[in-house]
Amino acid sequence: MTDPRWAVLGTLEAVPALDRPDLLGDPVAHALKLLDPADAALVGVAEIDPDLADTAAFCEAYGSPVTSSANCVVVAGRRGEETRYAACLVLANTRADVNGLVRRRLNARKASFAPMEDAVASTGMEYGGITPVGLPAEWPLLIAPAVAAAPAVVIGSGIRGSKLALPGALAASLPGAEVVEGLAR
Questions:
Q1: Long-range contacts of range 34-40, CB-CB < 8 Å, 24 or more positions apart?
Q2: Transmembrane stretches, by residue range (predicted)?
Q3: What confidence tens digit (pLDDT) does each residue in 140-168 have?
Q4: DSSP letter string, 163-177
Q5: With pLDDT > 90 as the criterion, what percentage of the chain qualifies?
Q6: Cβ neighbourhood burial of 28 (10 Å; 0-12, 13-18, 19+)
Q7: Could you tell me which of 81, 93, 85 has the C-alpha nearest to residue 120?
Q8: pLDDT tens digits along 71-101
Q9: What is the distance between the alpha carbons of residues 88 and 69, in angstroms, rounded to a whole number?
Q10: What are phi and psi of 89, to 5 degrees?
């Protein structure tokens, strides 16, 4: 039986993430190994159909509440020739304020979702599986307060074939993370 902390995964059976490194992107597995073992034990992983990795399809297929799914979006902010990246973690029923708050945080004239190729190349993760666990160390990780306050959220695992479940507070304690009021709209 799945740990009750991972019930946000709906009908899926989860196991401790470090028990199944085959279900994790390489940067994710590495980052989880660097966590305090007690924190790493709070992260569950469940195998899914990779064709159902997108949030709406995942939630419908597996009975996971959309209000417990958090999307990690990679934002590219540009000023002149310089591009800066950040990741935003917001609940799936909200949107990140990319053109306002995130653009200002990156001190950019223009900000938008990073092109898929750039996001994949920069993170070492699969598109549709990008997660805040294991992001490049120099990137800010902006987290919506509702995510940080959630008892558990579903996020990507670095690959399309699985999902992670973890406490929102743990997501908010990841390297580079900052809880930002007004991030989600």
A1: 39/170, 39/173, 40/16
A2: none
A3: 999 999 999 999 999 999 999 999 999 99
A4: EEEE-HHHHHTSTTE
A5: 97
A6: buried
A7: 85
A8: 999 999 999 999 999 999 999 999 999 999 9
A9: 13
A10: -120, 110
Longest dimension (CA), the chain: 53
For residue 89 the two structure tokens come to 């973690």
Q: Please give the Cα distance from 72 to 67 (Å, whole number).
A: 14
**Global pTM value:** 0.95
The full set of domains in the chain, from first to last, is 4-176 (3.90.960.10)
Which residues are within 8 A (CB) of 30 and not within 5 positions of it... i.e. 6 or more apart? 134
Strand pairing partners for 178?
142
pLDDT confidence of residue 2: 63
Instruction: Give the list of residues 6+ apart from residue 139 with CB closer than 8 angstroms, or none.
Output: 85, 86, 87, 176
Picking from 130, 111, 122, 116, the residue whose alpha carbon sits closest to that of residue 28 is: 130
